[in-house]
């Protein structure tokens, strides 16, 4: 939640976030973004395909972490707090997203609970994701041909 600074300005904790770029006379944003932390990728077309922005954010973050993980089978561990820190999705929002992306609905994200470790691992089901994407692309192509897009 945004809370304005003492004078009601933005940003409240980044007084030098918008320095002037030398010679350009306009605001520079690089310092601002450095202070915000790491940026995550988001492709709007994935949200359109899934019909849910939050699910797209979760899925794309999982896709980003998959090649960076140590597991050769693509399993990635992230705690609820790590998911929230990276995506701003609350625990309840994560549950809803996992239900949509999981095996009972779209089937593009698999889950594995490691009981001894007390950890929940996630993996992208690439085959289901590719199938869903191809269906989405074909549907969009058909709509274009019918003049609906």
Describe this structure in words.
With 149 residues, the protein is mainly alpha-helical. The chain has a domain at 48-145: Arc Repressor Mutant, subunit A (Orthogonal Bundle), CATH 1.10.10. 44% of the residues lie in helices and 9% in strands. It has a three-stranded antiparallel β-sheet. A hairpin with a 4-residue loop joins strand 2 (109-114) and strand 3. Helix 3 packs across helix 5. The radius of gyration is 20 Å and the shape is globular. Residues 1-6, 8-12 and 20-25 have low confidence and may be disordered.
What's the end-to-end separation, in Å?
37 Å
CATH architecture of one domain: Orthogonal Bundle
Question: Helix tally?
Answer: 6
Low-pLDDT residue spans: 1-6, 8-12, 20-25
Report the major sheet.
Answer: 3 strands, antiparallel
As for the CATH topology of one domain, it is Arc Repressor Mutant, subunit A
The average pLDDT value, as a whole number, equals 83
Order of helices and strands: HHHEHHEEH
Percentage of residues in helical conformation: 40-55%
Global shape: globular
Secondary structure tally: strands: 3
Strand line-up across the major sheet: 1-3-2
Text of the CATH class of one domain: Mainly Alpha
């Amino acid at each position: 939640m945004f809370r304005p600074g003492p004078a009601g300005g933005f940003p409240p904790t980044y007084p030098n976030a918008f320095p002037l770029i030398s010679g350009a006379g306009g605001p520079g944003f690089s310092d601002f973004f450095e202070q915000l932390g790491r940026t995550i990728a988001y492709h709007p077309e994935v949200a359109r395909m899934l019909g849910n922005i939050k699910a797209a954010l979760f899925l794309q973050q999982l896709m980003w972490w998959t090649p960076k993980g140590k597991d050769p089978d693509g399993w990635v561990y992230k705690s609820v707090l790590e998911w929230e820190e990276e995506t701003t999705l609350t625990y309840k929002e994560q549950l809803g997203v996992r239900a949509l992306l999981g095996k009972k609905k779209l089937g593009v994200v698999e889950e594995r609970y490691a009981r001894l470790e007390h950890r929940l691992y996630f993996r992208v089901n690439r085959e289901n994701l590719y199938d869903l994407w191809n269906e989405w692309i074909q549907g969009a192509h058909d709509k274009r041909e019918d003049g609906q897009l």
